[in-house]
């Protein structure tokens, strides 16, 4: 989601706590629409990153530096001239607008104290960074907006600065109950849309959250609510705005399968059992959100060709498997032809020349059976023909049983590779998957050199009770985990009959607690194709019971005795260790 006014309010509170009185030490412009301010605060140095990019505007505190161009752009040079070494004396947010204003005191060329304002507007494609003098006049901006581009407001040097009220939204801090109800019930649209289109600072996500907390259907118009429901909604609205005004916020991020879905300055309750990451700092949440989104996006882009190869191979093998099963079903009539042949050898003497059928007693069932005949052939010749059909179908069945098993194993192998692609987080993970596809013949190998040693490592978790748990990211790692890292008394977990990661719990001579069995089972469910299910059946066994058949594909193992448990996919109680 984009930053809404409530998120900006959380940032304002955080910046006030950390940046008021800080000195602007350095000013850089790493990108065309981006500024980085290095600030000296009583607690040490920090960096404020501001982006007015049309597709991804943001601002937050970060520890990460960015490389600046050798020649600073004009806007950067202007800021250095005026406010470098200046002090931030106030940080303001008009109502709940997506705007922050940094008032900066500095000395001019004459040594007199002056005040300038740096305005950051986080408004999607209209985002901008605007530099004002003490009369609220624009000195310059990172983007120039002329009347040819916008008929509402020019953003050019020498123009007066003002906030355009193009959407006619109300200030949520001053709205009365009557005004609140009137604004919602007068709009013939879903209640969620009526909220974010009526009040400054509310995004669609926050509107949905407000209605979810109120227990109301967000898809129906507010005019359909009762008076009591509207009163309840307004009370929740007041509680939310009071917490924003007081700065009593809970920055958090919601994740699905490790991928960031949403972030907000207040606790998001509408996502049920999704994972959440909480922090006291909105900057930390934004930093992590954008970093994780960028990582996921980059890996998705880099794995696109591998996904296409796996999807194509899967589709081809599934079609082949369906055809083989159909052909195998056709062979079921082979025994009928064998019985026809046997009965003709027994009763064929009674068939009249040129007859098209014969009725005989089926000594297998004791019932009468009618056997079709070729009138141009004798009974013994018809029997031979049926035995030939039987023999052909029997040979076909034997071949198809082997072929269907091979095709089924290939489908399971490809689905396990697909599952590995879903959990890949680094380029080294993709390298191993590519090598596996090369080994399986789906990708042509480049060059004739030896395969490079793999650098990617399994996921490493620590359970609530301090046991170390490892999870293979792909089939090569699964084999390494099970047959290299594990000792005989370690415990091994895997989702039952579905593709997934091998999960290994190192015992280190200790007895496993019930809780670690549950957490390892939940981990095996989470890193399997059953992750979307509420419950997944998990097999677990001591590693010494797990064997790898000769010539088996990577990641494929067998075991003949095991325990089972049912687990909900989850990472709760586990700590990820970055090795």
Describe it for me?
The structure is a single chain. Helix 9 packs antiparallel against helix 10. This protein has 13 helices and 21 strands. Strand 7 and strand 8 form a beta hairpin. The mean pLDDT is 90. It has 579 residues and is of the alpha+beta class. 37% of the residues lie in helices and 20% in strands. The strands form five sheets. A seven-stranded antiparallel β-sheet has the order 20-19-17-18-16-15-21. The chain has helices spanning 5-19, 74-83, 177-185, 191-196, 204-214, 227-246, 282-302, 304-330, 334-347, 379-423, 427-439, 475-485, 514-526; strands at residues 23-28, 34-41, 44-51, 58-62, 87-92, 99-107, 113-121, 128-132, 138-141, 252-256, 259-264, 275-278, 357-362, 367-372, 459-462, 468-471, 491-495, 503-505, 536-542, 563-567, 575-577.
- End-to-end distance: 31 Å
- Sheet with the most strands: spatial strand order: 20-19-17-18-16-15-21
**Mind describing the biggest β-sheet?**
7 strands, antiparallel
Helical residue percent band:
25-40%
Strand-helix topology:
Elements: H1 5-19, E1 23-28, E2 34-41, E3 44-51, E4 58-62, H2 74-83, E5 87-92, E6 99-107, E7 113-121, E8 128-132, E9 138-141, H3 177-185, H4 191-196, H5 204-214, H6 227-246, E10 252-256, E11 259-264, E12 275-278, H7 282-302, H8 304-330, H9 334-347, E13 357-362, E14 367-372, H10 379-423, H11 427-439, E15 459-462, E16 468-471, H12 475-485, E17 491-495, E18 503-505, H13 514-526, E19 536-542, E20 563-567, E21 575-577
Antiparallel strand pairs: 1-2, 2-3, 3-4, 5-6, 6-7, 7-8, 8-9, 10-11, 10-12, 13-14, 15-16, 15-21, 16-18, 17-18, 17-19, 19-20
Helix pairs in contact: 5-6, 8-10, 9-10
């Amino acid at each position: 989601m984009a930053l809404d006014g409530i998120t900006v309010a959380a940032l304002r509170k955080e910046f006030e706590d950390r940046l008021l009185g800080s000195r602007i030490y350095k000013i850089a412009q790493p990108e065309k629409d981006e500024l980085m301010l290095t600030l000296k605060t009583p607690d040490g140095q920090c960096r404020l990153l501001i982006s007015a990019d049309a597709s991804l505007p943001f601002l937050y505190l970060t520890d990460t530096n960015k490389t600046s161009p050798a020649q600073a752009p004009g806007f950067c040079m202007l800021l250095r001239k005026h406010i470098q070494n200046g002090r931030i004396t106030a940080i303001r947010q008009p109502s709940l607008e997506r705007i922050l204003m940094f008032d900066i005191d500095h000395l001019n060329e004459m040594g007199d104290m002056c005040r300038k304002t740096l305005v950051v507007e986080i408004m999607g494609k209209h985002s901008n960074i605007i530099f004002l003098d003490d009369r609220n006049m624009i000195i310059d901006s990172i983007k120039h907006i002329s009347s040819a581009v916008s008929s509402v407001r020019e953003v050019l040097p020498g123009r007066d600065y003002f906030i355009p009220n193009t959407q006619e939204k109300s200030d949520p801090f001053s709205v009365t109950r009557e005004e609140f109800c009137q604004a919602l019930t007068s709009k013939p649209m879903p209640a969620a849309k009526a909220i974010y289109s009526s009040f400054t600072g509310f995004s669609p996500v926050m509107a949905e959250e407000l209605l979810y907390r109120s227990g109301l259907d967000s898809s129906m118009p507010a005019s359909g609510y009762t008076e009591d429901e509207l009163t309840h909604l307004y009370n929740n609205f007041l509680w939310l705005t009071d917490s924003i005004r007081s700065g009593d916020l809970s920055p958090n991020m919601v994740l699905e399968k490790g991928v960031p879905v949403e972030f907000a300055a207040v606790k998001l309750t509408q996502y049920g059992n999704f994972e959440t990451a909480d922090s006291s700092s909105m900057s930390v949440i934004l930093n992590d959100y954008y970093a994780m989104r960028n990582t996921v996006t980059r890996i998705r882009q880099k794995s696109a060709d591998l996904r296409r190869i796996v999807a194509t191979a899967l589709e081809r093998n599934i079609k082949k498997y369906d055809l083989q099963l159909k052909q195998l079903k056709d062979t079921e009539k082979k025994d009928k032809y064998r019985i026809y042949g046997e009965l003709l050898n027994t009763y064929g003497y009674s068939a009249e020349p040129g007859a098209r059928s014969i009725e005989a007693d089926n000594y297998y069932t004791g019932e009468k059976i009618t056997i079709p005949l070729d009138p141009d052939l004798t009974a013994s010749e018809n029997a031979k023909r049926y035995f030939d059909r039987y023999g052909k179908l029997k040979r076909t069945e034997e071949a198809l049983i082997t072929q269907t098993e091979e095709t089924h194993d290939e489908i399971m192998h490809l689905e396990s590779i697909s599952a590995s692609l879903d959990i890949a987080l680094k380029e080294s993970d993709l390298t191993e998957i590519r090598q596996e596809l090369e080994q399986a013949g789906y990708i042509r190998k480049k060059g004739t050199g030896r395969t490079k040693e793999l650098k990617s490592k399994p996921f490493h978790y620590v359970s609530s009770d301090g046991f170390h748990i490892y999870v293979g990211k792909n089939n090569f790692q699964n084999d390494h985990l099970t047959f290299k890292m594990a000792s005989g008394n370690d415990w091994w977990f895997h989702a039952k009959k579905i593709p997934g990661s091998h999960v290994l719990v190192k015992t280190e001579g200790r007895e496993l607690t019930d809780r670690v069995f549950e957490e390892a089972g939940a981990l095996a469910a989470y890193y399997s194709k059953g992750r979307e299910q509420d419950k997944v059946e998990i097999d677990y066994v001591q590693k010494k019971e797990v064997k790898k058949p000769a010539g088996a594909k990577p990641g494929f193992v067998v075991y003949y005795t095991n325990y089972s448990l049912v687990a909900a996919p989850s990472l709760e109680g586990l700590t990820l260790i970055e090795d």
